[in-house]
Amino acid sequence: MSNINQAGSADEQQAPGALVEWEQRVAGYAGEPPFVEEPQRLSAIAAALKDAAIAAAIAAALFLFFIGFRTDIAIGGLDLTTRWQAFGTAIVVVFVGRLLFRILLWRPATKAGTRPLLLRAFGSGEGTPLSEHFARHSKSVGVVALVAAVLYPVIILALFPMKDKQFIDLGVLVLTYIMLGWGLNIVVGLAGLLDLGYVAFYAVGAYSFALFAQFFEVGFWFALPIAGILAACWGLILGFPVLRLRGDYLAIVTLAFGEIIRVVLLNWYTFTGGPNGISGIPDPTFFGLEFARGDDNLPGLLGIGYDSAYKQAYFFYIILALAMITNLVTLRLRKLPLGRAWEALREDEIACRSLGINTTNTKLTAFAIGAMFGGFAGAFFATRQGFISPESFTFMESALILAIVVLGGLGSQMGVVIASIVMIGGFELFRDFAEYRMLIFGLLMVIIMVWRPRGLIATREPSAILKERQTISADMVAQGEGH
Amino acid sequence: MSASIKDNVSEPGRWDESPVLTVENLTMRFGGLVAVDDLSFNVGRGDITALIGPNGAGKTTVFNCVTGFYKPTEGRIIMRHGSAISDAEVRKLTESGEQSMSTAEGAIFLLERMPDFCISRDAKVARTFQNIRLFGGMTVLENLLVAQHNALMAASGFTIGGIFNLPGFRKARQKSIDKAVYWLEHIRLKERADEPAAALPYGDQRRLEIARAMCTDPQLLCLDEPAAGLNPRESSELNELLQFIRSEAGTSVLLIEHDMGVVMEISDHVVVLDYGEKISDGSADYVRNDPSVIAAYLGVEDEEVAEAEAEAAAAAAAAAAAASAAGQTMSGGEPAGEQETKP
């Protein structure tokens, strides 16, 4: 009881001890008498079958008129045809679908013993199995993902010689969004400041490089740090007016900031080229060597022959390196006082101030560092496209990056990767079904938000551990301003 | 040097000899409402000072002024580091218009001029909150590390050195963890160091918040109702913790409390507020027997004050006898008369 007050007298220590005993005795009497619960007769499979049968019956009632009958315009009125085969198929699809859904995914309000197969396979214990699974193996998952990313262009070049350029380009696109997601994650996920205008920093980075290349003929590697620094400066410029804002107001001002940058780029015709954009942005070199035809250039010197896919692969490795720098810096910052102060700021700003943390500087560094990575990504975007215009930096982009962060799980690095692959990769793969693309996209977002309202990987990893690592479930973690 | 408060409700005491904090003529108005009216009191170095009063008396407003969360309408709040600080030095600082000044053997801070985070960082005044404000999604250990932010930030070379994990930072980090563990042992939460703070029971959260404030190395710890919502066992643990903080860490404590058991048992000095004005100021015994305090708490008519005073004196005598006999019992030897005074 009392190793605190060493100086306390013996009887002072005894009295609370007696109190503890008394409390424990009372606790022992409390509660309901023990009773054995009736074992559940209906097994999980039977319950699922019953549930699927009910769903099939409802489907049958609905589809009878929607699918079972068909009216065609015929001479003298309507002609009624029956389509029992389609009707039957629909019911079977509903039955099987519901059954699988029920067995594999959906968790009805029952005890832990009857948890669905897929969830049981993914993790142990109560709560959020998928997240826990990732949390426990986050390091190995990360390493596997990195190895897969490094090998991706090689595999693509070997397996799809015809479509290699397209697939590597898709990989570059996905990685660009992963990097943007990681950059925004600093502001939204760690510091908890909702930023709807992140694309502005992407634009600042892209235009910094494009304009430097146009006016001073500098190369990508020289312009890259400048683009990052300029974007960070713009992060500070945005940061100052929004320091005192919270919630919706913060969101609106950052949204406006993103639009202001775009409108300025659009209208400052003499400097930025306005809607015509800037073209002829140079490609990045490899220690002064270019990826172009000719014996003096890199493919010629290596003797591998020119293939535009090689240039794509080079882009892929550049963005992979940039993204990994973003990731490693973020992971490192989380364990430093600055990153911990960001998270504390997200949890409780007033408590931060009471502990002597300068919240102004802390917020500004979050905006600046997040913006800096946006600027790097922007410079890369400019060199990859070779042409930029304000069209590329609309609010839709901000919303997409924010959606990646939110769907992935605020503050989760792996969540951003998964969300980027699913959303950007999926988006591109469904390009053939152009008219259904937005439909599928919307449906996916609804499903994820219903299934996992705090994102795919919602658990938080502690930044310092005394004895054992415990992941923190999402419902304890505050979401910060504007959520 | 002695800054005794000259008014008719104060009992002079040792807190006037070398106060760590002096509140002078503090007035806080919200529009037409006067929350605190011309309040002056001293907080003695190494004392536990209690600020009590009925609900709405302005206690938390005083706290918010002292810790910089409100800018007082009028008044001066002086924080002294080091005991040998002359009135002339305080006057010099006040006239200079600066926020703080270092003297030969310490420093003076005028808290009413400082922003809130500087009061914690430079003037070393830490506080807790009436409704607990922990970082719920962070672990117990992380909460204590966030409190050491400024020391760690400097050690990490404002992040640059930290990114490369330089030896200086590694050493500072280990030191900060050691300090966190030291406090975790004293609030008996070491076993739960890796759990999220929001998962702790209420009493543990209260103690953790105090430990977090202590991790900022304060000279003055301001506690806003630390015993609120605690059961008798937890509040006796809290008493032990506060006495430990006073004796071992050498931190002066200023606390707001409604639990008279806690107040009367541990306070060296009690200041009573009612409707924003100070109605009594002195030792626990002096305040307990002050008729105006009894009147404020019970809301009696003037003629009943004398009667209440006699009753309280009897209760105090009984309580003193009971306390010496039983030591710490259920409510920490709370006198029956005071029990009723709780609003």
Automatic annotation (TrEMBL), chain A:
Keyword terms of this UniProt record: Cell membrane, Membrane, Transmembrane, Transmembrane helix
Pfam families named in the record: BPD_transp_2, DUF3382
GO molecular function: branched-chain amino acid transmembrane transporter activity
Residue ranges of domain High-affinity branched-chain amino acid transport system permease LivHM N-terminal in the record: 48-152
GO cellular component terms attached to this protein's record: plasma membrane
UniProt membrane topology term: Multi-pass membrane protein
Chief location category: membrane
Lineage: Bacteria, Pseudomonadati, Pseudomonadota, Alphaproteobacteria, Hyphomicrobiales
Descriptive protein name: Amino acid/amide ABC transporter membrane protein 2, HAAT family
Location(s) in or outside the cell: Cell membrane
InterPro entries, alphabetized: ABC_transp_permease (IPR001851), LivHM_N (IPR021807), LivM-like (IPR043428)
Transmembrane segments: 52-69, 84-105, 141-160, 172-191, 198-216, 222-242, 249-269, 314-333, 364-387, 399-424, 436-453
TrEMBL record, chain B:
Annotated CDD domains: ABC_Mj1267_LivG_branched
Single Gene Ontology MF annotation: L-phenylalanine transmembrane transporter activity
Stretches that traverse the bilayer: none
Region (Disordered): 324-343
Any Gene Ontology CC annotation: plasma membrane
Domain of life assignment: Bacteria
InterPro entries, A to Z: AAA+_ATPase, ABC_AA/LPS_Transport, ABC_transporter-like_ATP-bd, BCA_ABC_TP_C, P-loop_NTPase
SUPFAM superfamilies, alphabetized: P-loop containing nucleoside triphosphate hydrolases (SSF52540)
Gene Ontology BP annotations: D-alanine transmembrane transport; L-alanine transport; L-isoleucine import across plasma membrane; L-valine import across plasma membrane
Keywords: Amino-acid transport, ATP-binding, Nucleotide-binding, Transport
Limits of the ABC transporter domain: 21-300
Family: Belongs to the ABC transporter superfamily.
Protein name listed in UniProt: Branched-chain amino acid transport system ATP-binding protein
